[in-house]
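Dear colleague,

Thank you for sharing your sequence with our group. We've completed the structure prediction you requested, and as agreed, I am returning the results in plain text so they can be pasted directly into your records. Please verify that the sequence below matches your submission; if there's any discrepancy, let me know and we will rerun it promptly.
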Amino acid sequence: MIPGFVELSQESLALAEAEAVSAAEALGGGVAPTAEALPGLVGIEVPDAAAWVQLAGRLALARRCLVAVETSPDIGATARAQGAHGGSAAFRRIGRPSGGAADEGVLACGRAFKAGGGTIDLDQPSRRFWLVKAADERDHLLEEVASVDRTGPTLRKMPLLPFQQPVSLPPKLARAAVNLARVVPSDRVLDPFLGTGALLAEAGLLGGRLYGVDRSSAMVRGALQNLAYLGVSAEELVVGDARDVEFAHKDQRFSAIVTDPPYGRSSSTGGEDSAALVSRVMERWWERLTPDGRLVVIIPSGGAPLEALGPPRFRIPVRVHRSLTREFCLYERSSVSRSPR
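Please find the predicted C-alpha cells below.
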C-alpha cells in the first residue's frame, strides 16, 4: 500500500472525508492507519501509484491527492534532495494555492530546490509541492500526485441538462453519494426513485450498470435524455411503483442502491406518507442486494433511520439547498447478521 493524503475542498467536510475513504476502499485501499493528522487533509492509502490517479478521477469534494516526500527532518534538505532530480517545480502552502510570495517556508523550499539543481516554474511545473503545518508547528512537504477535476461537475448541473426540474441533487453531492456506495465498473446500481437521473448518471460515469424506477413516465423519459446527454446508457429503466415493480429478470441482484427519495408536499408518493413509503421500498430492494451490497439513501435531517437494515455506517447531515438539510446514510449488507423480514 502507498500512504498519502487527500486534500478536502472544505465543502461538507464530514461527507468529503467519508467520500475520500469510501472511494479509496472501492480501489482496494482505505484509511492510512499511521497517517499524521494534518489540517484539511485525510490520510489515505491505495494499492499502487496508478490508484492515486483513479482516486482523483472519482472524487467530487476534494482538491488533490498527495504523498509525503520527507527524506530528512530538515525540510530544506528534503527540498534540495528533490531538486537533485532536476526538472521544474512549484511550491505552495495548503489553503493558499495562489499565494506564497510572503511565506518564508515556501520561499526557503524553493531556494533549496534550486540549490539542488532544479528550477522554479509557477505556471507549468513538472512537479508540484505543498507545505502543510502540523499541530507541532513543523512544516511537512508533500508532492501532488493527482488533481481532482473541479470543473467537471459544473458541466453536469441541472440548468445545462436537456431535462430539468426545479430541485435536483447537485452533481458533486450525487457523486459523493455514489462514492459512499463504492461503485466500481460493472456493478449493477439501482435507483428506485429515479427522478432526473442525477445519481445514476454519476454511477454510470464510474462504469456502473444502471437500473432505475420511477412512477412517472415523463421522469423516466427525461432521465433517459439526461443520461444520453452525459454519454451514459442504462441497462433498464422502468415506469411503476418501486414497492412492487419488476425488471425483465425478476431475480436481478444489485451491488449498490443509491437513491434520493421524494419528501415534502411537492413530492409524488401516491398519497402514502413519505417516510413509510421509503421504508417499504428500501426494505424490499435491500433483499435484492448481493451479500456485500451497499445502500445509500438520502433522508431528511432528523428522520427516522431504517431500523430493519441495521445501524448505518455513515449518517452525515449536509445542507443541500438553502435551508434544506439531508442526511447521507450508508447501510452495508455485510455488516448485518440477518436480513430484514
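Summary note from our side: The mean pLDDT is 92.

Kind regards,
the structure core
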